[in-house]
Automatic annotation (TrEMBL):
GO molecular function, one term: transferase activity, transferring alkyl or aryl (other than methyl) groups
Protein name, entry field: Prenyltransferase
Its membrane topology: Multi-pass membrane protein
Transmembrane region(s): 12-32, 44-63, 90-109, 115-133, 140-162, 182-203, 236-256, 262-283, 295-314
Compartments, as annotated in UniProt: Membrane
Native species: Brumimicrobium oceani
InterPro entries documented for this protein: Prenyltransferase_related, UbiA_prenyltransferase, UbiA_sf
CDD domains noted in UniProt: PT_UbiA_DGGGPS (cd13961)
A cellular-component GO term for this protein: membrane
Primary location class: membrane
Keywords per UniProt: Cell membrane, Membrane, Transmembrane, Transmembrane helix
Pfam families noted in UniProt: UbiA (PF01040)
Amino acid sequence: MIHFLRLIRSVNLLIIAVTMYSVGAYLDIVYADYHDGVMLIQTFNFFLLVISTVMIAAAGNIINDYFDVRADRINRPEGTIIMKHIKRRWAIVFHWVLNFLAFGIAIHLGLVLDTFWYVFIHLLSINLLWIYSMQLKRTLVVGNVVIALLTALVPVLVGIYYQDYFRTAMLEEAHPFHLNSYQFFPLYIGYGLGIFAFILNWAREIVKDMEDVKGDLVLKARTIPIVYGLQKARSIAIGFVFIVMTLTIPIVWFWSMGYIDGFALLPLVLSAISSIFTLKVLLKPINNKNLRTANIGIKLTMIFGMILPLFWMFQLLN
């Protein structure tokens, strides 16, 4: 069981679930007047949306390791799970079972909520993760962009779910002001966090590629570190982390205007601290130890940013 949990990256899956519930909880409070006291994050359909997203991510992690056995034996032999602890045929069975269940849930959500978005996004994600693991991962830039986009879809999915629900509710209430002001707010929140996640995850993928150069050379991959060199790859990763730090400026402006209190800024402060820490590590000599530390720093920055709506929710409650 422990090997299976390591294979599907259970910690990363937990981060996905926490992110979705964090965004959902905030939007529930913002739209408290439109759901009759029933928070959507407590509904079974929202749980299904979260669990299906987690299943697709888990299946993607499995198929990624399935195609990367040769490289993993070189890059991280101690962390190789497929063939060492789990047979390849069982790995592929787990992959397809998870995807089948997730897609079935997407069809259910589409029928119940009268939208095609969940079927489209789930099917797109399943196929992109397969193609990414089989081919795109070793393609210059494209592989990084694909996996970063899929990561960005996590908060966007929540935005779509809430936008559809509350747009209908506001139309029924027939309040034009509310409709014009708040109709697309869930999507704005989802897209904002999605951009944040996209940039950071791209930086993290570059750092991971820097760690995996030896194994990727065996697979004849064309990653940024292999094509442009480790120094240029590091500069690009540093640039992405710095861009994320500049994205916090509008939120600081909201705080200075009194729209956000100090407590609601705590994740932003922690995110800035972890970003500075990451930049400091990336400026050190390039070796696997420093790259792993930078990887952790980027992941922490992403986590702090993704839970920001949860702290905004507490501010609204108070």
